[in-house]
Write a structure and sequence with these properties.
- The chain is α/β, with parallel strands linked by helices and 288 residues long.
- It folds into two domains: 123 residues, Nucleotidyltransferase, domain 5 (2-Layer Sandwich); 141 residues, Nucleotidyltransferase, domain 5.
- It is 38% helix and 24% strand.
- The chain is built from ten helices and 14 strands.
- Helix 3 packs across helix 10.
- It is globular and about 55 Å long.
């Protein structure tokens, strides 16, 4: 497959399904639909079909899907999808269903993996070989590029640093949007508005968050030793408020030369979820 071919990237979230027709890193058209609350497995698959049908799927060379779960990548099966209730305890053969309907190659992967892949093809990671993309939102997800290729692991669970033990819970509890809600009873968005107005308490909370996130980054450095870490997700937009706290923790990393060579960036990629999903076609499709 070639960069100038047309692909569809589909982002399956807990509240909506969004898709775009993509060519050469440009989103040519978009469609979306809110997921039906309490919808059955078949109803949600029907919603996915409706969204894709609005994007001229007959013109696409492939479809890439990012899903918030672990995936049987070889067979395109989605399982343990926690934020879609009807998909929690069933294995959903999403790849097979889409292939049957649209008669094109379909690639299904974890949404954090799609994020880092989109950065590799179209964003901050183009010039780097070993990259960790970290999505900071309601959770903390990660995707890995190792030696210029996406590494998903056996069950599409590689890079789940947010699930590593930390204090009395896991890293995600203290280094994602959960921290603001669970510890201080406020949203990250509201806190950012306060910080922008010069609120000292908000600034202190972000600094504490940054110190926690720094521990997650240290874990990534010990495990992967990347060239680049790219932050994405809603909380990453507040990077200026938590960067100093994060770097305070990073100063305790025991390999200062490695730290000096590390780049940390915040994604600026528009339509990152759609482009990332579409990138699966470039990563795994037959190269011509």
């Amino acid at each position: 497959m070639r960069m100038q071919d047309r692909f569809i990237g589909l982002d399956l979230g807990g509240t909506s399904v969004k898709a775009g027709l993509v060519s050469a890193g440009v989103v040519l058209g978009e469609a979306s639909e809110r997921i039906k609350t309490g919808g059955s497995t078949e109803e949600i698959i029907g919603q996915i079909f409706r969204v894709l049908d609005r994007l001229e799927p007959s013109t696409a060379s492939g479809i890439g899907v990012g899903a918030p779960s672990v995936i049987d990548v070889a067979n395109g099966v989605v399982f343990d999808t926690q934020n879609i209730p009807s998909w929690r305890d069933v294995d959903v053969p999403l790849g097979a269903r889409l292939t049957e309907r649209y008669r094109v190659p379909v690639y299904v992967n974890n949404d954090a993996n799609c994020f880092v892949l989109g950065e590799k093809y179209f964003g901050k990671a183009v010039s780097f070989s070993n990259v960790v993309g970290v999505t900071i939102g309601t959770g903390l997800g990660s995707g890995l590029i190792i030696n210029d290729r996406l590494y998903s692991g056996t069950n599409c669970g590689a890079g789940e640093f947010g699930m590593c033990p930390f204090r009395d819970r896991v890293i995600e509890y203290y280094a994602s949007g959960q921290f603001f809600a669970n510890i201080y009873g406020v949203s990250g968005e509201a806190l950012a508005e306060r910080a922008a107005r010069g609120d000292n308490e908000a600034a202190a909370i972000f600094a504490e968050f940054g110190r926690n996130l720094g521990e997650a980054v240290k874990t990534i450095l010990y495990a992967v030793d990347p060239d680049l870490i790219v932050f994405g997700g809603s909380v990453a937009r507040s990077y200026r408020w938590f960067e100093a706290g994060m770097r305070e923790t990073l100063a305790t990393f025991v390999y200062p030369r490695s730290l000096a060579r590390l780049r940390i960036e915040v994604s600026e990629l528009p339509n990152a979820a759609i482009l990332g999903a579409a990138s699966l076609c470039l990563e795994f499709g037959e190269r011509v």
